[in-house]
Amino acid sequence: MTHTDPFLALSSRTGRFTYGAPRAVTFSADGTRLLFLRSTGSEDPVERLWLFDLSTRQEHLVADPTVLLPGRTGAPADLPVLERRLRERIRLWAPGIGSFAATSDLSHAVFALDGRIFRTSVADGSTTELPVAGPAFDPRPNADGAVVAYVTGGALHLTDRAEPLSPADGGVWGVAEFAAAEELGRTRGHWWSPDARAVLATRIDESALPLRYFADPSRPEQPAESFAYPQAGGPNVDLRLWVLGLDGSRTEVRWDRAAYPYVCAAGWEGDGELLLTVADRLQQNVLLLSADPATGETRELSRTVDEFWVDDLPGTPARLPDGRLLTSADTPGGEARAVALDGKILTDERTQVRRVVGHHRGGLLIEAGQDDPADQHVFRLDPDSGELTRLTEGTGVHSVLVAGETLLLTSATPAGITRRLHFDGTEFDLQDLSAPLPYVVTPQLARVTELGLPTAVVYPRGHVAGRRLPVLLDVYGGPGYQAVANEPRRWQARQWWADQGYAVVTTDNRGTPFVSPTFVKAIFRRFSQVAIDDQVAALQALAETHPDLDLTRVGVRGWSYGGYFAALAVLRRPDVFHAAAAGAPPTDFRLYDTAYTERYLGLPQENPEGYAADCLVDDAPALTRPLLLIHGLADDNVHPSHTLLLSQALHAAARPHSVLPLSGVSHMTPDGMNELITEAELAFLGSHLG
Q1: DSSP reduced 3-state for 281
Q2: Counting beta carbons within 10 angstroms of the beta carbon of residue 501, is it exposed (0 to 12), middle (13 to 18) or buried (19 or more)?
Q3: Hey, how many other C-beta atoms are within 10 angstroms of the C-beta on 441?
Q4: Residue from 492, 412, 415, 634 nearest 14 by CA
Q5: 160, 316, 641, 665 — which has fewest CB within 10 A?
């Protein structure tokens, strides 16, 4: 795909400036070595497996897919259906080695290519293809790497035997169901025991779920593809957990599945104990359970309760090595997200905890914000005194990985991105081969209105004060994603849009994360009103301090929830918003999935007014502004029927609008396609805003 604009062409060639950057970094248990994925340069999309020895500071290529499978494209369309769908749900679109799993000492690593499984001996770099029973994915090695578990055809297999480990009972074994992979953060469905004598495995039954269908109009000879989809208010999968012994034994793990249908996390402790995190359907109660793998009996270790919903805090709930229980909590009054140890809150109202990473020098490493939600820092938290020690400095988004005494601190700042290793009293960087970011962007950040809404304004380079500019609201606005952050990659496209002649405005309305629990939960049982009220109020407040914002020409663009907001904006506030480009909008949340939608809106049967108020289809006759609808026809997150329903209603109401269907494209647009969409949006918005 060729782009005439230099920035769009560069963005396409470099994978939006990510090709060549290290990813999926995994430490050995002792912190002396690490494995990671990286391509060979800024315009090479094919990711290879590399080893870095911290003692010698030497880097070695461990596995190269272009050698193992010459001519391989790695496009997700070439993958088995299950793997392709799982990759799309976890936003993984990578040619080459998209993911890998390794033993704790990193002596062996395994990965899948085109449904084939390969095992690499990291010490000598030798790679062997393993026999599989069919197109395979999600390989996981046992403790010494001798045997690999994998999934094919809905069954769980081991590489050292012909027959599947899972029984042939009609269920799908060893995979993460849609709700887990898409909404709950669990992307796997089988786990080896520490002694390699058993595998904990999910068994899912999707027979009660409705089917969603996809047909590619560009390939009419190909039959439509379907998959089971858990629609809000309807049935979820029947999910069970089993301990499958390699000796043929089978033990079901038992808990109150009717009351707690979601398994958010699962795994083995070093002594062979099982730990499960389960949640009720509305995610207002989250339990940490201990399970006996011999009997399947469970007992409750901790319970986190919230009258709205329990937001996931990665790293919790968990049990510390000394047996104490670490859970998430809100400070009194809802000012901050906190961590609690055996029920005692450790962090204060100033600290918004975002992730608990691990143990380091007697403390807990956490990622958290203080003061400005656009910044994130790394802290060491003393679990006894609650004392916080900040390990990172300067504006930016700082994150950490830890193993033993070794740290990898990643700092994404306005100046760029660094990955610094702290090992044995020395510091050095993990090599990054990605393209330099073309723009050094300094967004003008401000907290506006009495709500303290985080906002940013980006002007064209060389903008002369006094020149009035049309406004482009570049928006997401939904739960789980923070748009206003001091991370440089996200501002590159916004600077390009600004250079096309716009003042680009971004606002995090209530419902978005990292300001406070109260801020996040203001959308309880109703999405649309809070979002539209906050975005309009922020625009008006910014215009008072930015007189060059021309509020008579305001366009809005967004994708997914941002697409929903873009359509919402011109349908309900045409007095403020004058044109919109809405990508993959969920126009009726009654058709969206259970785990996401019900967390915020409840059950449709219990909150029909909220669902009706957030539905855009009935607003179709009110459209008076230009609207461009964009949707991938293979989107299994926001099904194309969402856009079809709104478009049909607009046609029925004789409301002119534009539709851009993208054949073969899922919710996660591939490299190059984003630039095509951008060109279409630019032409559309420019024609209506000037």
Answers
A1: coil
A2: middle
A3: 21
A4: 492
A5: 160
Angle at 613 between CA 611 and CA 615, to 5 degrees: 70
CA neighbours closer than 13 Å in the CB half-sphere of residue 181: 25
Q: What is the mean pLDDT of the chain?
A: 93
3-state SS, 156-169, equals: EEECCCCCCCCCCC
Distances (CA, A) of 467 to 463, 548, 581: 8, 6, 25
Angle between helices 528-545 and 561-572 (to 10 degrees): 80
User: What is the C-alpha to C-alpha distance for residues 524 and 526, in angstroms, rounded to an integer?
Assistant: 6
Model pLDDT, residue 217: 67
Token output for 34: 């690490």
Q: What pLDDT, on a 0 to 100 scale, did the predictor assign at position 668?
A: 77
For the ranges 209-218, 232-241, 576-585, the lowest mean pLDDT is seen at 209-218
Q: What is the mean pLDDT of residues 594-606?
A: 98
- Take residue 504 and report the two structure tokens written for it: 């680009």
How many C-beta neighbours within 10 Å does residue 26 have?
A: 17
Tens-place pLDDT, residues 131-172: 999 999 899 999 999 999 999 999 999 999 999 999 999 999
d(CA 530, CA 524): 10
Q: Give the model confidence (pLDDT) of 28-49 as tens digits.
A: 999 999 999 999 999 999 999 9
Helix (H, G, I), strand (E, B) or coil at 677: helix
CA 116 – CA 371 distance, rounded (Å): 49
